[in-house]
C-alpha cells in the first residue's frame, strides 16, 4: 500500500483554526494550541447564550406586558390566566409589541379578557 502524507490537510486545519481566532489577544491569535482552546470556550459560550437569550427576551416581554397592565390595575398572572380561559391565542411577544406600540388595541384585548 502506498504511503499517504497528511501535511497539506493538517496545515489547512491549523490555518482554519487561526482564521477563526482572528482578533483575539496575545498568543491566542497566533499559537495553534491556545487558539483551539480559546475557540472551544468561545463556541461553548455562544451555544449556551443563544439558548439563554430566549429566556431573557421572554422576561422582557413579561415586563412590558406587566407595565401596561399595572396602569389598568390588573395583575400579570390574572391577565395571562384570563387569556387562556377565553382561548385568545396571542403569544407574549405579540402582546408586548401591542402594549408598547398600540395601547388602544391593548385596551380592547384587555376589555375582551375582562
From TrEMBL:
The keyword Disulfide bond does not apply. It comes from the Bacteria. Keywords: Ribonucleoprotein, Ribosomal protein, RNA-binding, rRNA-binding. GO terms for biological process: ribosomal large subunit assembly; translation. The keyword RNA-binding applies. GO terms for cellular component: ribonucleoprotein complex; ribosome. GO terms for molecular function: rRNA binding; structural constituent of ribosome. Coiled coil: none annotated. Pfam families: Ribosomal_L20 (PF00453). Binds directly to 23S ribosomal RNA and is necessary for the in vitro assembly process of the 50S ribosomal subunit. It is not involved in the protein synthesizing functions of that subunit. PANTHER family: 39S RIBOSOMAL PROTEIN L20 (PTHR10986). HAMAP family: Ribosomal_bL20. Belongs to the bacterial ribosomal protein bL20 family. This is Large ribosomal subunit protein bL20. It comes from Candidatus Sungiibacteriota bacterium. The gene is rplT.
Amino acid at each position: 500500500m502506498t504511503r499517504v502524507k497528511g501535511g497539506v490537510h493538517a496545515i489547512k486545519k491549523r490555518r482554519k483554526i487561526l482564521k477563526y481566532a482572528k482578533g483575539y489577544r496575545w498568543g491566542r491569535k497566533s499559537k495553534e494550541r491556545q487558539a483551539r482552546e480559546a475557540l472551544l470556550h468561545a463556541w461553548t459560550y455562544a451555544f449556551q447564550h443563544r439558548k439563554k437569550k430566549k429566556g431573557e427576551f421572554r422576561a422582557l416581554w413579561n415586563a412590558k406586558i406587566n407595565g401596561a397592565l399595572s396602569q389598568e390595575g390588573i395583575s400579570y398572572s390574572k391577565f395571562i390566566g384570563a387569556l387562556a380561559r377565553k382561548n385568545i391565542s396571542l403569544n407574549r411577544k405579540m402582546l408586548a409589541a401591542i402594549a408598547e406600540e398600540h395601547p388602544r388595541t391593548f385596551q380592547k384585548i384587555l376589555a375582551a379578557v375582562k
